[in-house]
Amino acid sequence: MRVLFSLLFAALLGAVQALSSTGSRLLVVIEELAEKEKYGTFWGDLESRGYRLFFESPKSEALRLFKHGERAYDHLLLLPPKSKGLGPNLTPQILLEFVNNAGNILLGLSATSPTPAAISSLLLELDIHLPPDRNSVVVDHFSYDEKSAGDKHDVLLMKSPKSLRPDVKNYFAQNGPIVVPRAVGHVLDNASPLLAPILRAQSTSYAYNPKDENDEEPFAVGEQLSLVSAFQARNSARFTVLGSTEMLEDEWFNAQVKSSAFGGKTVATANRNFASSLSAWTFQELGVLKVGRVEHYLNDASEKSGTGNSSALGTAQINPKIYRIKNDVTFTIELSEYDMDKLVPFVPAPADTIQLEFSMLSPFHRLALQPTSHTANSTLFSTSFTLPDQHGIFNFRVNYKRPFLTNIDEKRTVTVRHFAHDEWPRSFVISAAWPWIGGIGVTAVGWLAFVALWLWSEPVRGKGKGAKKVQVHESSEYSDLTIACAGATYRVHEAIICPRSEFFAAACRHDKASRLRDPGLEGESILWQEAIERKVDLVCDHSEAVAAMIHYFYHLDYAEQVPKLSKPCRHYLEFPDQLRSFEKQLTAHWNDAEFIPALYVAYQNTPEDEKFLRRAAADALNAHAELLGKPEVQAAMYEINGLSYELLKRSMKRLKELMEELGLDTTRYRDIVHYLSS
């Protein structure tokens, strides 16, 4: 039985649950409770939609909009009071706090009772301006009810409200005229994006004070006047200003009206349906958007290319935290709209689009979301695009704000990274790199062609300048000087020999500075015999050395067969390159039979001040101590003056180096030197 009663209670609770998406508690503030009978049909419609109505007087001390810091009611309906105010519990600050806490307010005005100053101050906070004259009323001498306002023209007959603009949905359209008796017109601030007129006055309407006959300038005229207006806060709480509370009375719900503006026919009013739509919108039964799934992921093409972000299983991740630049991604959002008692797929106005922003500090992409599929109670909007070539922290953001619809501001933050090292496209894929690649190819091909041409066009040996030098050296043509040595005769050219040897230059010189005066010949100069005979006889030199020297004069290089060590001529001293060659010969052929004669040549055939060959001979002998055991070397050391001394100096220098390497006391070195010298 308890289970049965619980199910019955739950069913009853569901049956009386209000259709509003924000709650069912509705507080009606009415100064005279006896007047609530005038709105019986309206109260019945609200209760049939599940609202729980609470009636309180603005003067009641028990009236509280908040209890324990929370809203005591979900919605508030304020009827115009007869007195000058709404009491201490309904100040403008408290009412604004109620709106800031997501409470909805329907405020009714009437020209039959002055508007309290507190209401005027509250509306000014919302950029809604009331006439300065509290007794002002809106009249229309063309569109009015001829039955009830034949004289005053203050019962207006309004056509069905039109859409505010093409991209805004219209929730208040009706099939018949709407009666607005004795309305208080108000003006909206055009700069506020939170305000929107629901029902505007006709172009022939104006607001004036019927008690002031001298009022020549009206407060506002035509469509400047709003009879019903809506304010939706940033938290989507709603505040509706109803310029005439009498239009909610039973009298006008089923009234028959007549006006020349409607062809002079008697027609039924649409006030009941309009009141139902207005209250449903104010108490968030209409125009409430709900966000379902929000997804973003890589496209299949990115996954197949292997350059995207995939999970360990190889499937695309939903809502990954990181992407790569130039990824192809898809964004999807699911939207539903609350329609009286159920969620239905959201369909924007024909001229409206839902946009996606992909932004960092400012949007890099702003794309229209297209409806791709529908479910029983939602619509899926999606779009695909390529991420920008910019790394950083980005946001997928849907910021959708339209009049008469609750605000949507959904944001998902992701990271966009650079290409990894193995993800950069190859240079031949990038068209901008083709000129660079072509330049490299042209350079390489040109270099190879140049090398091939250079190798192909290399001159054949014996046919170039080198061949001409060989011919001049080996040929006696045009020779103007003869060098004789040990029976060998060499026909040479003075222009080649003399510039490269001071000896031959002095012997063949023709100028007066080189002439010798014979004391027996007055005033005549005598030339060298070599200059006269054009012949230089080198009696004391070896023919092989002279031949090598002449070869060097012509080729500035040595012949393949160099002279023996024991046969250097004295003219080697003029050529450092030949001296170094002789030094190499001493070092390389220390164990040959020619080495000992070379020692005699180095010390006996060279001047005292030319020590290059002597040092070279001593170094070669010192480097090979085993030569000291040969009798011919010992005889040379006795016969050659200075050779023993050179060897001693090198031995003592080497001894000191060995003592330093072994860490011995070098002071003993002096004692050794003193002992050897004694």
Automatic annotation (TrEMBL):
Residues 479-554 form the BTB domain. It comes from the Eukaryota. GO terms for cellular component: oligosaccharyltransferase complex. It is a single-pass type I membrane protein. Gene3D superfamilies: Potassium Channel Kv1.1, Chain A (3.30.710.10). The chain crosses the membrane at residues 433-456. It holds the Pfam family OST48_N. It is found in: Endoplasmic reticulum membrane; Membrane. CDD domains: BTB_POZ_ZBTB_KLHL-like (cd18186). Pathway: Protein modification; protein glycosylation. One of its GO terms (biological process) is protein N-linked glycosylation via asparagine. PROSITE patterns: BTB. Keywords: Endoplasmic reticulum, Membrane, Signal, Transmembrane, Transmembrane helix. Subunit of the oligosaccharyl transferase (OST) complex that catalyzes the initial transfer of a defined glycan (Glc(3)Man(9)GlcNAc(2) in eukaryotes) from the lipid carrier dolichol-pyrophosphate to an asparagine residue within an Asn-X-Ser/Thr consensus motif in nascent polypeptide chains, the first step in protein N-glycosylation. N-glycosylation occurs cotranslationally and the complex associates with the Sec61 complex at the channel-forming translocon complex that mediates protein translocation across the endoplasmic reticulum (ER). Belongs to the DDOST 48 kDa subunit family. PANTHER family: DOLICHYL-DIPHOSPHOOLIGOSACCHARIDE--PROTEIN GLYCOSYLTRANSFERASE 48 KDA SUBUNIT. Component of the oligosaccharyltransferase (OST) complex. This is Dolichyl-diphosphooligosaccharide--protein glycosyltransferase subunit WBP1.
